[in-house]
Amino acid sequence: MSASRSQGIRHRLSLTWRVITLSSLLLLALVVLFTWLGHANLTRQFEESRDEYSARQAREIQLALQRSEDSLQQLAALTAASPDLGPALQNDNAEALFRSLSSQWPTLQLEAGIDEILVFDAEGSLLAEWGQGQPDNERPIQAWVDQVMSTEFPISALRCATDCRQYAAVPILVNGMSVGMVMLSRSLADVTRQIQQVSGSDVALLVTGTPEPATMPERHLDRWNGNLIAMTRQKAYLLLLETAAEKTSLNELLQSPLHLQHQGHDIELSAVHMASDEDHRSSGFFLLASNITPQIRGINQNTRTLLAAGIVGWLAAELLLLTILLRPMSRLRRLAGVLPALAHGGFGQARSAIPTPRSRLPDEIDVLEGTTLELSNQLETLEREVGARGAQLAERVEELARERDFVSSLLDTARVFIIIQDEHGRISLVNDYALSIMATQKEKLLGRLFDDVFAARDSTSLDESNIQEERSLLTMEGRQRTIAWYHAPLPTRLEGGASRISVGLDITERKVAEARLTWLAERDPLTELYNRRYFHEALAIAMQRGRCGAVLLLDLDQFKDVNELSGHHTGDRLLHMVADTLFQVFGHRGVIARLGGDEFALLLEGADARQAMCVAQQILPQLENTGLDAGGQRHRAAASLGIALYPDHGSNAADLMASADLAMYKAKDSGIQRWHLLSTVENAKDELQERVYWVERIRQAIEEDGFELMVQPIVRLNDRNVRHYEILLRMRGPKGALIAPLNFIPIAERSGQIIQLDRWVLRHSLKALKHVQDKGISLAVNLSGQTLHDDGLKQYLIEELAASGADPNYLILEITETAAVTDFSTARGVLQSIRDLGCRTALDDFGVGFSSFHYLGELPVDFIKIDGAFIRSLPTNPDSRVIVRAIADIAAGFSKQAIAEFVDQEALVPLLESYGITYGQGYHLGRPVLLTDVIPEALGDTNRA
After folding, report:
1. CA dist 475 to 111, 217, 314, 411, 658, Å?
2. In angstroms, what is the C-alpha Rg of the chain?
C-alpha cells in the first residue's frame, strides 16, 4: 500500500502536471491582464470622449449666452433710436416719452422676450418703465448710467437673484449728444431651451448666494447654497440633483463631471459657470445631466467578450500542450524509474528497461536514453576501476603511514630544534632534541608563547617579516645558548589560521668563535695591540671630532738584524716586549697599535706639540731599557719616532700618517735625536715637492713605458706545480734600478693617476698572457680601489681582450678586502661584470677585517688570498691558526679556493695543507722575477709598446 501511495503521489506531482499547472496559471494571468487592459483602454477612450463632449457643451453654452447678449444690445440700440424718444427726453415731456415706446413694448415683450424697459435721463433719474423688474433692489443702476453717459458706449450685464437676467444699456443721442439712457432686460428661458435642444440633456439653472425663496422651497439645495430657478423634467431631475449635492461639491463638479447611478441608469452630471455679480454675492450655473447608460453597457459587454475569448484560448492551449507532452513525459517517467536502479548498481536492469533506439529522427529524449545506456556501461566500467584503485589506495595509505613514521623519527632524531607554532605564536609541536637540550618535558612547553621561551635579542616580536633571526635560550642549568632560527609558513588549515614551522640551530660555539674573531680582527695577533685597520678608523673618527691631536709613529732600528741573527721567533719576542712596555706605560694616554712589522703608533687626542714631544721623550728611554738575550746576543729595542699634529699636518688619516712617516724617517736621518716633530711649513714644502716630483715621474713612466712588470709564482702546495703568477709592478729608476711600488702608488692614488696605471698593467699583462695561456698558465693582476669606480673598465677590458687575443678565463683580477668592504655594492657589481666577460676574480689581503666573513658569500670571487700577517705567525701563534683554519673552512663552504700569502718557511706548508688550503705564495716558494725571464715572448711586445 505504501508503494502504491508513493506511486500515486509521484503521478500527481509529475513533471507533466507541473508544466500544465504552471502554464495554466501563466495563461490565466495573461488573459486577466489583457482583459483588464482592454477594459481600461475602453474606459479611458470613453472618458476622453466625454471630456471633449463636456468641453464642447461649455463652449456652446457660452456661445448661446453671447448671442443672446448681442441680440439684446441690438434691441436696446433700436429702442434708443426711436424717433420720438430723444425729443421727448430732451423736452422733458413725460407723456410724449411714454407714448414713444408704448407702441413697441408689446412686440418686444412677445417676440423678443423682453421683461423690462427702463428710461433714464442724463443724471440717472428714472423717467419711464415698462414690464416687471427683477426682484432685486440692489442693481447698480446709477453706476451703469454714469458709465454709459461718460463713455457713450453700450454695456451688458448678467445678474442672477431669484432669476437670471441679461441687461443691455445704450445711450440716447440727440444731435450727437447723450441726453439719457434706455435699458432692456430679459430672462434666460430662451437660452435654456436652446441648450436643452442642442445637448439633448436635462438642463437646470442654479443660482447660488441667494436666500431660500418663499415659493417652491423644494428647489433650494442647501449643500450647494443655491436655488434651482429653471429646470427640465423637474420631478426626476430634482431628485438627481439632490443626490449629486450629497456626493460632491459645486467646485468639484466644475472641475470634472460626476458619474452616478440613478434609478437604474448611469448619469453624467456636469456644471458650467455663467457669471457673477460685481460684488460676487450670487452666481449662476447651468447643470447638465446626460444618460450614458448605453455607452457603459457597451464597454462592459466588450470586456466580457475579451474575457470569454481568453478563457477559450487558454483551454485550447492547455489541451494542445497536454497532447504534445503526454507521450514524451511517459518516456521521461520510465527513465526516472531506471536511474535510481542505476545509482545502486543495477546496470543490467537499466539496460533492459530502456528499449533499443529505433530508426527515426532522434529527439532530446532519444539522446537522453542513449546517454543513459552509455552511462550505465561507463559506470559499470568505473566501478571495476574503483575497486582496483581502492586496492592501490590502501597500499598507498600504508606507504604514507611508513613515511609518516619515518618523518616522525627524523624530527625526533634531527640534531636541530624543530618547533611548530599556531597562528597566535603558541608552541603546538616540539621535537625530542629540543626537549633534551632544554632539559624539560613536552607538556611544559606546549601552549606557551614562542617569544616567552626563546627571548628575542631586540624589542621586535615574531612576525611575517622575520624569516631568519637569532634568539637566546636560558637552559635549566642556567647556561645561555644562542639559537639561529629559520621560520617558514605552513599551508593554511581549514579549521584554523596560518601556522609556521621554526627550525633552530645551536650556534653558541660559533658565536663564541665569532666574538673571538671580532676581537682578533681589531688586534694584532702577535702583540695583542690594536692593528693598522683599527688605528686608521680610530684616527679618522678622532679627526672628524674637530679637535686637535697628535700621532706618534715608532719604528724599531736594525730590527732586521734581530731576525737574521737570532731568528724570527726572537724578533717576535722583542716585538711582544715592546708592545707590553708601550701598553703598560702609555696605554692610558691613547690608542696604541702595531701597524705591521716593527712599526707602532700612538694616537693622542687633544694633545698639542709640547705634550706630544713630552710623550716621545718618555717613550724612547723606556724602549732602551727593554731588551733580551738570545744566542749570545743582547738585543735592545732602539727606535726612531716621528710626530705629526692634526689638523696642521693632514686633513685626513692617510695624509696625517704620511706626514708622521716622513717625520719618522727624518728622525732616523737625524744624528742628534731619535724623534722628530714635523713643522707645518716644512711638512707642506716637502710634501709639495715630493708630490710634484712623483706625479711627473709617474706621468712620464706611463707615457714612455717606464715601468717593469715582475711575476711571483702561486704554487700548488701538494705537488709544487705552478699554474698561476701574480703580476707585480716596479718603476725603472734613472740608473736602471727598480723602485718599489710603496714609493709611487700612494702618490698615484692621491693624484688620480692610479686608474691609468691599472690600465697600463692590464694592457701589458694581456699581451703577455697571450703567450702562456695555451700552457694553462693564468696571470693575476691587482686592481686599485679607485678602478672599481671606473665606468669604462668593462669596455676597456673588452677592447684589450679583443686586441691582445688573450683568453679571459686565464686572467685573474684581484681587489683588496678593504676596497671591497668599503663600497660593497660597487665592488660586487664590478666583480660580477668582470666574471660575465669570462675572467676570474680574487679577494686579496683577506682577514684584515672581520666584516669580510659577512660579505664573503655575496662577493662573486673565485679565490681568497689570506693576509700574510696570519700566515707568518702560524707556527707560534694559536690565534692565527684558529683564524686561518676558519678562513679556509669558510672559503671551502662558499666553493672558493684559498691562497696563503707570505709563505716564507717550509714548516708552514704542512700546516696549510692540513687546513685544506690549495695554493701558497711567498719567498720560500718563489721570489719575484722579471716577467721577461718567465715569458721571453713578452719582451718583443714590451718593446713594440
Report:
1. 140, 122, 92, 21, 54
2. 66
- From 914, 872, 918, select the one nearest 891 (Cα to Cα): 918
DSSP 359: S
Taking the C-alpha atoms of residue 825 and residue 656, their distance in angstroms, rounded to an integer, is 29
Q: What is the dihedral of CA 77, 79, 85, 89, to 10 degrees?
A: -60
CB 35 within 8 A of CB 310: yes
Q: How far apart are CA 341 and CA 851, in angstroms?
A: 79
Asked whether the beta carbons of 907 and 887 are under 8 A apart, the reply is no
Q: Is the dihedral of CA 519, 525, 527, 530 positive or negative?
A: negative
**Phi then psi dihedrals of residue 290, to 5 deg:** -115, 140
Question: What are the distances in angstroms from CA 3 to CA 8, 56, 292?
Answer: 9, 77, 65
Question: What angle, rounded to 10 degrees, do the helices at 878-893 and 508-521 form?
Answer: 120
Measured in degrees and rounded to the nearest 5, phi and psi for residue 215 equal: -95, 145
Task: Give residue 480's Cα distance to chain centre.
Answer: 46
Considering only 4-8, 287-291, 649-653, 667-671, which range has the smallest mean pLDDT? 4-8
Give CA–CA dist 698/705, Å, rounded: 10
Residues contacting 576, CB < 8 A, separation 6+: 526, 527
Q: For residue range 196-227, what is the model confidence (pLDDT) as tens digits? A: 777 778 888 888 877 777 667 777 887 888 88
Q: Could you tell me where the beta strands, DSSP code E, fall in 306-354?
A: none
In sign, the C-alpha dihedral spanning 460, 464, 468, 472 is positive
DSSP symbol at 715: E
For residue 227 the three cell numbers come to: 436655488
In the DSSP assignment, the letter for residue 121 is E
pLDDT tens figures, 311-362: 898 888 888 888 877 777 777 777 777 777 777 777 777 777 777 766 566 7
More reliable by pLDDT, 178 or 554: 554
Q: Parallel, antiparallel, or unpaired for β 778-782 and 721-732? A: parallel
Show the CA angle centred on residue 682, arms to residues 540 and 596, nearest 5°. 45
Which residues are paired to 620 by β-bridges?
Answer: none
- Edge-first strand listing for the sheet containing 549-556: 591-596, 599-605, 549-556, 639-646, 675-677
SS3 call for 567: coil
- Report the pLDDT value the prediction gives residue 802, as an integer from 0 to 100: 93
Q: What angle separates helix 680-704 from helix 754-772, to the nearest 10 degrees? A: 40
Q: What angle do CA 333, 339, 343 make, to 5 degrees?
A: 160
Concatenated DSSP letters of 51-91: HHHHHHHHHHHHHHHHHHHHHHHHHHHHHHT-TTHHHHHHH
Cβ atoms 202, 237 nearer than 8 A? yes
What is the pTM (predicted TM-score) of this model? 0.37
Helices (H) and strands (E) in the chain, counts: 33, 34
Q: Which residue has the higher pLDDT, 213 or 93?
A: 93
